Fold this protein.
Amino acid sequence: MGLNRQDMGEFFEKLGEKPFRVSQVTKWIHQLNVSDFDQMTNLSKKLREQLKEKACIKSLDIIEDQISTDGTRKWALGLEDNNRIEVVYIPEDDRGTLCISSQVGCALDCSFCSTARQGFSRNLTVAEILSQIWLATRLLDEEKKPGRKITNVVLMGMGEPLLNFDNVMKAIDVMLDDFAYGLSKRRVTVSTAGVVPAMDKLAERHDVQLAISLHATRDELRDDLVPINKKYNLEKLIPACQRFMEKRSPRSRLTIEYVMLAGVNDTKQDAEDLIKVLDGISVLINLIPFNPFPGSGYKTSSNNAVHRFQDVLMKAGLITVIRKTRGEDIDAACGQLVGKVEDKSRRENKFKVPRIGMNT
Ligand code: SAH
């Protein structure tokens, strides 16, 4: 499950097989959703036996499977070490987006995100990242409802994808591979809290969509909300955004995510500051109404505040959309993915807030 074209090529070379086996097997696994080598009928019996000896195609355990009144579907998936991750499918009129996780928990400690409360355990393997798409494809097919397809993948679930760089890049290789998921590079989005050196590396490695979780335009506030800002502050992050976009086609846009927190970052002045900070960068702004969770200490900005904020940005010519909150009734919205993590960073000890009411 976790081999990109190059890795699988090396695997088959060692077996003395020709390179075309890569496309054949990739297609069986990722397009035809086959997990049994015996079903791979265009492989010789001998090769199938060899594969059974040397490899296995294993997915993740489904621990929970919930569907929201708005059609959003969320799975909690179990990993071999008893950790859990969450995956969300979000259907829209013209597309179906799968929001996948890249790490077990998250180390970044963003103050408004419930995943942060779980602490960090480990990076997901390439296979675990791709299994989420593999499994969701199979389970959506089983619904036998028209239009329930995965057209977009966003790495906006649990974890910071750019801190699991190599595995995420390999997983993207397979997402874009025509013999696997064949997604267009414009339909795969990596979301980062601003790991600056990895943004530069990403620009060289993959031409996928990038989203920056900005949320604040002053270091003092951003240090609080997105603590990785203490390492890569705005003076480093904004030029990194510029460098990233210089390597992209002039028509492409950087997505800026901005969570709307009442009384924290949602005034007219905040919107004006955002315009200044983003000056000269081609952006699409996503305003995300804060999704509350017990003990967060934050409140969602009022509808009025969100629309006023959007108006200011739009008047300045910045394309700004208000992200619709989806799957709230099943705790599937942004920042509500918690899974169950064995915290290696012992972050939980730092919080005195009880975790009652969260979907653990
Ligand atoms: N670590 C990556 C991806 C995971 S978070 C990143 O930071 O971008 C995906 C998005 O959800 C981020 O923009 C994040 O800031 C936002 N988010 C986290 N918690 C949220 C909450 N409670 N309400 C709304 N958005 C939230």
